[in-house]
């Protein structure tokens, strides 16, 4: 079941972050509460057998008539990976950006092959490297962008890519 997240989900989200991003300053429950309460953010999660197992957040930036988007986070419980949960979350977030024909930007560790593969499947391209972007690990990040598409074009592309 996919649903919108609220501040009440923050403790579980912080628990998942610790599992997934322990070396890179994982977000706390307070960080999640602050993010989710922002009107320009959309946070979605997937519940499986009563537990929240996957989450993702998208921020809408810039002018209302010509917005751009950023994926702020995405994570799947290590025990629940490779079941298509991230793909479902990405489909929803990309569809939201496509409603406004806005590009989506994100950063990803240069050694994070699973995430890079996921993003490439959704049409993201690498456009730069940010040195020592992640702390305290000091790992580099790729900046990736999925160029703006209209919803109909996006559905056509996704049919080609997935
Ligand atoms: C990246 C992540 C979100 C993927 O979640 P997931 O639910 O396992 O991914 P899905 O099952 O939906 O897979 C979708 C696609 O992602 C890619 N992918 C996912 N896991 C992969 C892996 N271990 N190795 C290579 N490619 C992988 C594949 O292209 C896959 O498509 P396929 O199954 O048809 O090959 C998950 O590995 C994760 O939570 N990682 C830790 C947190 C993280 O790094 N988040 C991204 C921060 S930028």
TrEMBL record:
<dbReference type="InterPro" id="IPR016181">
    <property type="entry name" value="Acyl_CoA_acyltransferase"/>
</dbReference>
<feature type="domain" description="N-acetyltransferase">
    <location>
        <begin position="1"/>
        <end position="149"/>
    </location>
</feature>
<dbReference type="GO" id="GO:0008080">
    <property type="term" value="F:N-acetyltransferase activity"/>
</dbReference>
<dbReference type="InterPro" id="IPR000182">
    <property type="entry name" value="GNAT_dom"/>
</dbReference>
<dbReference type="Pfam" id="PF00583">
    <property type="entry name" value="Acetyltransf_1"/>
</dbReference>
<comment type="similarity">
    <text>Belongs to the acetyltransferase family. RimI subfamily.</text>
</comment>
<keyword id="KW-0963">Cytoplasm</keyword>
<dbReference type="InterPro" id="IPR050680">
    <property type="entry name" value="YpeA/RimI_acetyltransf"/>
</dbReference>
<dbReference type="InterPro" id="IPR006464">
    <property type="entry name" value="AcTrfase_RimI/Ard1"/>
</dbReference>
<keyword id="KW-0012">Acyltransferase</keyword>
<keyword id="KW-0808">Transferase</keyword>
<protein>
    <submittedName>
        <fullName>Ribosomal-protein-alanine N-acetyltransferase</fullName>
    </submittedName>
</protein>
């Amino acid at each position: 079941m996919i649903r919108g997240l609220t501040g009440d989900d923050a403790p579980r989200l912080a628990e998942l972050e610790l599992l997934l991003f322990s070396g890179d300053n994982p977000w706390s429950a307070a960080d999640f509460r602050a993010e989710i309460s922002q009107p320009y953010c959309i946070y979605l999660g997937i519940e499986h057998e009563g537990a929240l197992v996957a989450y993702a957040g998208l921020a809408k930036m810039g002018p209302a008539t010509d917005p751009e988007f950023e994926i702020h986070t995405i994570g799947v419980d290590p025990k629940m990976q490779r079941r298509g949960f991230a793909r479902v979350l990405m489909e929803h977030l990309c569809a939201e950006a496509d409603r406004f024909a806005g590009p989506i930007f994100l950063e990803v560790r240069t050694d994070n092959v699973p995430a890079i593969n996921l993003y490439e499947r959704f049409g993201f391209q690498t456009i730069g490297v940010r040195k020592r972007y992640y702390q305290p690990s000091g790992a580099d990040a790729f900046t990736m962008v999925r160029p703006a598409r209209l919803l109909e074009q996006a559905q056509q592309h996704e049919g080609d890519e997935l």
